[in-house]
Design goal:
about 210 residues, alpha+beta, Ferric Hydroxamate Uptake Protein, Chain A, domain 1, 3 helices, globular, disordered N terminus
Length: about 210
Amino acid sequence: MERKLWVLVVLCAAAPVTAAPYYFQSASGQNAWIEVDAWAGSGANETILVVDWNFMGGPYHTESHAFGYRWDGTAYESDMLDAFHNAGVFTVTSAYGGAFLVNIAYFDGNDSHLHIEPGSWNLGSTDNPYARWGPMNSNWTKLGDWDANQAGYNQKLLQNGHLEGINAILWFGSYPPGTSIDDYPLNVPFAIPEPTAVLLLAAGLPGLRRRRS
């Protein structure tokens, strides 16, 4: 019996993370089904964090993953990352008093995600899940259609109904031959919901449809 129980524990520990389709209602009204791996925090406000490791440290079965965060009052991006870190969802390392993101280590049950060039990330936010992500513009304000984070992530205020994006780039290293940073945008992991979930959402059942204040 003890041996069987031990085998069960090992199998559970090795089980992949099961992402669940979530109907995210954005501040722009552009709503979307997104595959969310895990949640942290609680409160009336909500954001979805998308981290895309691209090929760096891979190959991966899935390069980008989404995580949901809720809060009340005022919260910064550092509060969100600390919440995921403290909950054991992923491991965050930072520098300069928590103002500079060094790395995010995440095991999804299949792959261990870790950037091979620590510190090389682009951070941005948007209220439109379908916004196009692109390279940083010349005045460091935009990442395609996303707003670039120009301050330390401990100074970036979260906004209800927005997505936060963290995209791995190569600042010092070289991209594969024939490619550039343009070929590695942040990709939101959109979901294809089960038909039953769509019907429940249309019916306005609690838990699937949430009113915004």
